[in-house]
Amino acid sequence: GNQARVADKSTVVSTSTRNFPNRLGQGANVYLASAELAAIAAIMGKLPTKDEYMSLYNSLVSKKDSTYQYLNFDKEESFTAAAKDVSIEQEVLDSAKKSYAAFIA
């Protein structure tokens, strides 16, 4: 996950949606980045220059149709099949429905 703690006083790139002092590590320098930038930084071991980024990005853009896809988990067979065996207590379902109704009201 992207919320793991890192070594104290380290410098890292994270795809987290938020950051504040000491969130990911005591005294850590955390740079928030897109998934693409984080992947390129991981490959290079540093934050890339614009030219380095564009060079690596352009080499991958031809694969974008198989890389980027909106995931509708309710339509993904592997997820719906696994969900069939999950049972949720009626009390939990009722509570969730009540909370949702209050939220949209």
From TrEMBL:
<dbReference type="Pfam" id="PF00330">
    <property type="entry name" value="Aconitase"/>
</dbReference>
<dbReference type="GO" id="GO:0046872">
    <property type="term" value="F:metal ion binding"/>
</dbReference>
<dbReference type="GO" id="GO:0051539">
    <property type="term" value="F:4 iron, 4 sulfur cluster binding"/>
</dbReference>
<protein>
    <recommendedName>
        <fullName>Aconitase/3-isopropylmalate dehydratase large subunit alpha/beta/alpha domain-containing protein</fullName>
    </recommendedName>
</protein>
<dbReference type="GO" id="GO:0003994">
    <property type="term" value="F:aconitate hydratase activity"/>
</dbReference>
<feature type="domain" description="Aconitase/3-isopropylmalate dehydratase large subunit alpha/beta/alpha">
    <location>
        <begin position="1"/>
        <end position="45"/>
    </location>
</feature>
<dbReference type="InterPro" id="IPR050926">
    <property type="entry name" value="Aconitase/IPM_isomerase"/>
</dbReference>
<keyword id="KW-0479">Metal-binding</keyword>
<dbReference type="InterPro" id="IPR036008">
    <property type="entry name" value="Aconitase_4Fe-4S_dom"/>
</dbReference>
<dbReference type="GO" id="GO:0019629">
    <property type="term" value="P:propionate catabolic process, 2-methylcitrate cycle"/>
</dbReference>
<keyword id="KW-0411">Iron-sulfur</keyword>
<dbReference type="GO" id="GO:0006099">
    <property type="term" value="P:tricarboxylic acid cycle"/>
</dbReference>
<keyword id="KW-0408">Iron</keyword>
<dbReference type="InterPro" id="IPR001030">
    <property type="entry name" value="Acoase/IPM_deHydtase_lsu_aba"/>
</dbReference>
<dbReference type="GO" id="GO:0047456">
    <property type="term" value="F:2-methylisocitrate dehydratase activity"/>
</dbReference>
<dbReference type="InterPro" id="IPR015931">
    <property type="entry name" value="Acnase/IPM_dHydase_lsu_aba_1/3"/>
</dbReference>
<dbReference type="GO" id="GO:0005829">
    <property type="term" value="C:cytosol"/>
</dbReference>
